[in-house]
Hints:
Elements lengths: L4 H33 L7 E4 L4 E2 L7 H10 L3 E2 L9 E5 L2 E5 L3 E3 L2 E3 L3 E7 L2 E7 L9 E2 L4 E5 L5 E2 L10 H11 L11 H14 L9 H10 L6 H17 L2 H11 L1 E5 L2 E4 H10 L8 H10 L12 H17 L5 H8 L15 H11 L5 H6 L3 E4 L3 H18 L7 E8 L5 E5 L11 H4 L2 E2 L5 H9 L10 E4 L4 E2 L5 E2 L10 E4 H6 L3 H11 L1 H11 L17 E2 L1 H12 L3 E2 L5 E5 L5 E4 L5 E2 L3 H17 L5 H5 L4 E6 L5 E7 L3 E8 L14 H11 L13 E7 L13 E7 L17 H7 L1
Parallel strand pairs: 1-15, 3-4, 12-14
Antiparallel strand pairs: 1-11, 2-10, 4-5, 5-8, 6-7, 8-9, 13-14, 15-25, 16-17, 16-30, 18-23, 19-22, 20-21, 24-27, 25-26, 28-29, 29-30, 31-32
Amino acid sequence: MKYRPGKRVIGWFALASFIIAILYVIWLDYRVIDRFTGRLWSLPARVYARPLELYAGKKMTVEELLFELNSLDYQRVDQPPTRPGRFHQWDNHFEIKTRAFRFWDGSEESREIRIDIHGDTVSALHGLYNKKAIPLIRLDPVYITGIFPAHGEDRILVRLEDAPDVFLQMLVMVEDRRFYEHNGVDLKSIGRALLANIKAGKTVQGGSTITQQLVKNMFLTPDRNLWRKVNEAVMSLLLELHYDKEQILETYLNEVYLGQDNERAIHGFGLASDFYFGKPLSELDLDQMAVLIGMVKGASYYNPVRNPERATRRRNTVIDVVESNGLISESQALIQKNRPLVVTSRNKRSLYPAFINLVQRQLIRDYDAEDLKSEGLRIFTTLDPYVQKITEKSIRTTVPELDRQSDELQAAAVVASADSGEILAIVGDRNPSFAGFNRALDAQRHIGSLMKPVIYLTAVKQKENYTLGSLLSDTRLRVQGEDKKVWEPENYDKEFHGDVIMYEALLKSYNIPAARLGLELGLSNISDTLRQLGSNKVLPPYPSITLGAVDMSPFEMASIYQTFAASGFHSPLRSVRAVLDKHGTPLKRYQLDVKRETDPAAIALINFVLNRVTHAGTAKGLSKSLGFEVAGKTGTSDELHDSWFAGFSRDKVAVVWVGFDDHRPTGLTGSSGAMRVWRRIFADISVSSVNLDLPDDIHLVWIDQPTGLRSAKHCENAVELPYIRGTEPEEYAGCEARSPLDWLKKIFK
């Protein structure tokens, strides 16, 4: 036999190719197993607002409750609700079937409840059918946003057992009728699709199985070539070799690409259901299921937001397939196809950027940045969506009114719970959805007259030396600072007022008495008071700081005034309540931290004046215009660069700043600028009047305002002021109290 070297070369080549193919398949097998046995996905942290707690007696209007239900995408129905996430409302009565939800302290089951609201208060809360009173119930919290990984993928994981059976049947009917029969590649489907495409002269049908689609999404590039198709087929066979149909189908449910929300990729039917219809997959109607299943063929082409007509046609095609397979009747199919396509998707990534910025800063103390983007944490925050809405509306409406010459005037606001320090709303730009410079946290501006209550609090803490009736000198003041420069402050009205009592000096926000008193008290003592109120600011050694020539952010000022609002109890401002891992296990609770930081009697004296400021001071008429009692302080920095207002009710405290980024004058005082924003916020949210009750160790005494001596109610220039018992003046100013025996005294004289 003649030797033929070519045959040997071919043989060796064939053997080498076989070995390489085997090794390549082994490598593909390793990739499949490694991905499925490891962590399948990097899950972004999901951030929620506070859950709305309802109980009889809670301050809440019909408008607020409707806003909350709409934010939660609860569907309004015309009869008592039978499915979770639905409500029936007439007049001031609500019938709601709540959603089940797992909170940080346990699970809340779905319940059928009735709520009655009268005026601005929940008057009754009971079971819808048993009429039994319910002491407290929480609605599921509004989802705000996610903290996304670099690749921008987002998903809500759905377990196979939690997906509706009808949805799974529809999905298999449309995408892979022989899913439970093939081994990853369906030659019959490929042949059928090939014939259909040849007849049509174009691609009208695909032969890919659900397994192949999953492989393509998880492992391969979108390139269309023979080599990729070979890889897809081999990996599909390997996937089915190692994993059962249920595992594959569940993974497919959570991996399939279903659209784009700016840079965020919508993956999985769980997130798609929430994004397009505002409810979980388990609550979808059949026509809505058909929309999502129809999008699998082309998520962008059949997007119901951008292409509703195409999406509707594709939905109807899916319904026809479902009807032809006997899952629904012809009449049922007709009803479903005639339903309007209504989507509720909102770009939640652009919601509340200033608040999310704060959440990330507070979380980064306890979690790595990568964990927030990949570990699927569930973050429960303190945000009140309605208060946030009203705060944003106030800034959007008011700032343009204040700035008619340009679009450059800026604003920031912080609203918090007076008792707990929980941040309810925060805005960092005149355009609240702008995710740029966060002025609420980072704008360091002169606080102006917001410093004065700190100075006067420092004084009245020394009750043996100072009271609200103490006389202060409002005369020319010249001081040389450590920099050898002479500082000579002026009052806003450019006048001197002689001797004035402390009450009047704070009420009318005179500069010179505050400066003189601050220097007399000492800057170190003022710093101590600031620290007790919640600030860590180190004051520079300049006399001008007594009039607020110190830079602070609105957030820092809100921390200080929270202590005033809470009668001396300081709670660090916080935006996070709890963090759960992806399995729902609590990781960290951010407990309420309340400390008595300063003398409650001294705080009560200052708060008394801050309430009077809203009646007869620099915020004159504020309480009257609102219809309930508040307390507050205007702030205006030198040459009208900054306009501030800090104020509080019994339950809420807010700070507003208005100004230009380049520090040019605004032409606005605290009352003509920031207070207008503040007033609109408090006019539209549910609040309680500020507590005007005085502690037991304080009583009211009539004082002669010009001298600070004792007087009587009927006397000219008399003013009633609170005094810590034992500190009130004993000497009268010449007009004493009248009594029924006065006429006898005159006779015997």
